[in-house]
Amino acid sequence: MTVSEPAMELAVTLAERDRAADHFWSFMEDRSVRFLPQQFAPMFFSTVAQLAAGQGDPPARRAALAVAGRMYRRFGLYPYHGTVIAAAVVDTVRRFAGASWDRGQAGSWEVGCRRALRLAEGAARVLGDGPDLTVAEVVACEAAADGVAILTVLPARRLRYSPGQAMPVCTPRLPGQWRWLSPANAARADGTVEFHVRAIPTGAVSPVLVEQVRPGEVLWLGPALDVGLSLEQAGDADLLLAAGGTGLAPLRAMVEQVAASESRRRVTLVVGARTLLDLYDAVALDKLQQAHGDWLTVVLAFSDDRDVEPAAQGDLLSVVLHHHRRGQAVYVCGPPRLMEAARQWLPLAGVASDELHLATTFQRAFESARWMSRQRVAHSPEPGAADAAAANSGPSRSARDAT
Question: CA torsion sign, 166 to 171 to 172 to 173?
């Protein structure tokens, strides 16, 4: 794959993340543009620059846009700030890109920055006020299965989120490259939060989170947002939860939410894996089953393992349909291929459309429109916000590896 000039210039610049962010911040301070606290300069600069360069696949760009929108609103930006921000980005990249800098790209960078800021302004109107940006210290890293890690973090301040929501997460090792992750637990007394991460072989971010991040490091956390898994949508109905891979994380948090509530609806949690060796978080699942066996049933489904008992053999959606009962609220979360299959086959198999809740993957344009619509309803925003689908544009149209 040919690497675009903006991508190369940005990579070289962000290799000196802190120095570049300090230069960016000082550039604006020298011009009396003082909306940005210095400690947020690395997050702000790297996120806007990644958007301006057109980097990332659709889910990653939606995550970056959510962060940029929240920063736009929190720091009180106005459209007239765009001129100096674009100038600061161009000057910073020119200064730190070294031999990779192409003077002919200055105009493209400026146009890209202005476009990114217009999109951030629209996202800010849609998202409104809500959970803020913060940092969290990684306190534990557990290798849960081959290519899967459980990261436990302690945020600088208690996170505001509901089980089933997702938030953009970024490691400063890869500044400005955000990935959607869902907390795997309901609120805890000690404030810690678990994230489950699977390393995608062709990915840029997930292998770093799984293989390189260590206790003591920090992660940047964006605002928690609805991605289609809110329990409020189910009313008092019994639940049928279908988890594929690390899609287990938000559904496990939802089980904990039910456990902490006065409701004792019946919950069936179906967890799919290819083989027994691919199953992770088994200890936590066993503890949940033992603690709440009066209303919770955990079912394992192995699609490619003939050594497990016959009752546990089968693909996830087939097992889900076996346990489906009329009136249940059905929630599905997992990799994009699973979500496409669930969207296509579950309604045909008798799951009512108003009872089916699918996690947003941002792989298709209509998912982005539906996601933005949810945020409008949730946050009562101003009208006329830009569609996040436009966030795919930039001076470089080439996508980086999936995160």
Answer: negative
pTM for the model: 0.88
**pLDDT per position as a tens digit, 299-328:** 999 988 787 787 778 899 999 999 999 999
Nearest to 217 by CA among 295, 285, 313, 149: 149
Q: Could you tell me if 367 and 169 are in contact, meaning their C-beta atoms sit under 8 angstroms apart?
A: no
Low-confidence ranges of the chain (pLDDT < 50): 1-2, 381-403
Strands 356-358 and 329-333, bridge-based pairing: parallel
Q: Is the dihedral of CA 377, 256, 179, 69 positive or negative?
A: positive
Residue 367 near residue 383 (C-beta atoms within 8 A): no
HSE-CB of 304 using CA atoms within 13 angstroms: 5
pLDDT digits (tens, 9 = 90+) for 253-309: 999 999 999 888 999 999 999 998 889 999 999 999 999 999 999 999 998 878 778
Question: Residue 382: how many CB atoms within 10 A of its CB?
Answer: 12
CB 334 within 8 A of CB 272: yes
